User: Fold this.
Amino acid sequence: MTLPYTFHAGEATVLAAEGQFTDAMPEVLIGRVDGPVGQAFASMMAQTKGHTAMFAIRACNQMVRPATITVPKVTLKDMANIELFGGVVQSATADAVLDCVIEGVIPKALVDDLCIISLVWIDPRCATDPQLDKRDMYRTNYEATRLALRRALANEPTIDELIANRHAIRHDMDDWSARADAGAGG
Assistant:
């Protein structure tokens, strides 16, 4: 039998406001510090060129609980992207985690027993967009992180939902599965 809170995975996408490149697509793991998520969390503390992990903090000296590490999904090549990641995205992630504790999604009694890894997307166009709306970037990352954590801890989507929607829901970027299904005779 698996211990509660051993390993939960979730993801969510929240789309940007019109004209922005601030779509948020976090992928999260939440689990016990003494389990596989905790081991992965500790391993991620080492610096990897271009994919520097950071703790989610609400402000200086205000690291969120459960301890949360954010890792960019794309290489951060310049200070503009690093500042967005370590500012807007970092605070939105931290606020989402804390609000999940306040709302009871994450049990308050377990905040020191759990840790979170959040893989975060920043569209590289954001750093050079003179019309970048940082409030929208905050909004999308906050909403998507909250939703990803809720889904992770609720084990959503369920396998029954996935099976029921196997042929009804297609990937957003293209409909590869329709072509594959046709080639397979189905």
The first helix runs from residue 36 to 43. The helical segments are 36-43, 79-102, 134-153, 159-164, 176-183. DSSP finds five helices and five strands in the chain.
